[in-house]
Amino acid sequence: MHQNSLFDTTDPQHPIDDAEGGVRYLPGVFDRDWCERLFEVLWHQAEWNSQQRMMYERLVEVPRRMASYRLDRERGRLPPMLEETAQRIGERLAAPFNSVGLNLYRDGRDSVAPHNDKLHDLAPRQPIAVLSLGATRRMTIRAKRAPHTQWHMELEAGSLVVMSHASQHHYDHGIPKSPGVVDPRISIALRVRHS
Ligand SMILES: O=C(O)CCC(=O)C(=O)O
Ligand SMILES: [Fe+2]
Predict the structure, then answer these.
(1) What keywords are annotated for this sequence in UniProt (predicted)?
(2) Ligand 1 atom nearest residue 132's Cα
(3) Which residues line ligand 1 (CB under 6 A)?
(4) CA 82 → CA 52, 72, 73, 78, 102, distances in Å?
């Protein structure tokens, strides 16, 4: 029996389902030309930060660069092409996205550890959408509950991963290090925040 109406599917592009759509992979949402132009714009114009976090009582640098914007309050700060991209994704998914998080993985040594997106500030039942640009990187999704089933998705430029709010309670996602990857990747995470 499946608990919480969450269940595995056999469709690699829709590995997890739930009442809010589960986790879906949508390839080819933006074409190659759009992705290359947007990558260039963000590479040069985004306000990239490096962040630090505590690990084993030491302050370590997070192995990727990040930037974040509000769509509702910071119109002038956003590169117009990013704003247009976010608007198109919002229309496609019928979601009132108001926040944009950018991640820059300079090469395969950059990564994000398995985590679920923090829900306290996110509107219930609204999806999280991640657009990929640049190098293809693998996303690993892992059930929090034993036996910790895992799924792997190769995130191509122009694709969207759409994760339900509900899925964040039951699954972690991450971008593991990929030593063979020498090219950079940028991801654009769209969310609906309460505040
Ligand atoms: O880069 C990605 O595809 C995932 C990013 C992510 O999980 C996040 O920003 O919370
Ligand atoms: Fe995340």
Answers:
(1) Dioxygenase, Oxidoreductase
(2) 3
(3) 101, 103, 112, 117, 130, 139, 155, 173, 175, 187, 189
(4) 26, 13, 15, 7, 10
pTM (two decimals): 0.94
What's the CA dihedral at 85, 87, 91, 97 to 10 degrees? 110
Assigned token pair, 62: 């997070």
What is the token pair recorded at 181? Answer: 């990857």
Which ipTM score applies to this complex? 0.99
Q: How confident is the model at residue 3 (pLDDT cuts 50, 70, 90)?
A: very low
- Whose tokens are 């944009």? That residue is 100
H-helix or E-strand containing 45?
Answer: helix 32-45
Side chain identity at 103, as an amino acid letter? N
pLDDT one-digit tens code per residue, 108-148:
999 999 999 999 999 999 999 999 999 999 999 999 999 99
pLDDT tens-digit map of 180-193: 999 999 999 999 99
Of the candidates 25, 117, 26, the one whose C-alpha atom is nearest the C-alpha of residue 68 is: 117
Q: Which CATH class is domain 14-47+61-191?
A: mainly beta
* Nearest CA among 150, 107, 142, 101 for reference residue 122: 101
